[in-house]
Amino acid sequence: MALVLAGLVVAAILEAAPAQSAEDPVLPDVTVAWPAASVRVDTTQVVRGRLTTPLPGAVAALQRQVLDRWIDIATVPMATDSDLVLTVPTAYYGHFLYRVRIATEEDGAVETPTRQITVLPEYSPRGRDESYALISSSPVGRWDPCTPIRYRVNLAKAPQGAMRDVRAALANIARASGLEFTYAGPTTVVPFAQPTYDPAVADLVIAWAWPSALGGAMPTGTFGLGGEETRSGRDVAGNPVRRIWQGGVTLSARYNRIIRPGAGKGLTRVGALMHELGHAVGLFHVEGDPSQIMTPWLGAGLDVWGAGDLAGLEAVGAVNGCVSDG
Q1: In which region does residue 185 sit, left (phi positive, over 0), alpha (psi from -120 to 50) or beta (all else)?
Q2: Is pTM, for the whole model, over 0.90?
Q3: Which of 46, 53, 223, 235 could pair covalently with 28 via S-S, beta carbons 3.0-4.6 A apart?
Q4: DSSP letters spanning 159-211
Q5: How far apart are CA 212 and CA 163, in angstroms?
Q6: What whole-number percentage of the chain has pLDDT above 70?
């Protein structure tokens, strides 16, 4: 059942602090109206505001909190007696804390109270929010979401329609994490058959291969393998993280006729790719909640992220800001 969201708008009044003397600048009152606290992904959501007194040269910024920093998401000049409109991003799921900052070069700046906005999927995720595990949790291992992840695909042993399913699975990862993927072309590399995936050519490699090509790395009965390599990094607050710099996914060509193409009922190729790509972006297997894609076993109809899957993808996703080398 799709989650129905009320289109409520909550208004907050930002009042200027009293001046200390006749010479001190005073910022005017600003009225700000926020979207609902929960909104659907890929919907148009805006913050609206209005100056109640003149303020020449004012600029309004929609800011999002990233760890201990406030990052400008959108800015717009704010003319006297005109409406302010700032667009709230809704391209991927997650919990985001926002504020509006009004500033001039001469008069300083004021900020509104904060507003949490949760971007939800088009469906009701199954299972528990806590049903996830990370490959690296102390510190967390994740890609730099501020740099597109370049990927290549080895289709030599792939079934028909495989490339379409790769794109669908990556789109599902992007929508849940905010990570961006860019196709860089084909490759002959088979992840886990070599010591590294494809460091000179792409960040992420996806392939199909017979298990014998992996020299025992793919046990009998395994649908696929996924993983990542990390190195020392830092987040925007200077905290240590494990920066993922290579990822790989190999699906067994032995099951090309068993795993059905696309998504939907049964054991699906999109579901298998989502699971292995989950490993490549930092997620580990989760036990005790079979409704999650990251359960150890490929289950029928498991090609929609569960609540725990989404919580894990948010933990390694773009909501946490950029990652740089340590």
Answers
A1: left
A2: no
A3: 53
A4: PTTHHHHHHHHHHHHHHHH---EEEEEE----TTTSSSS-TTT-SEEEEEE-G
A5: 23
A6: 87
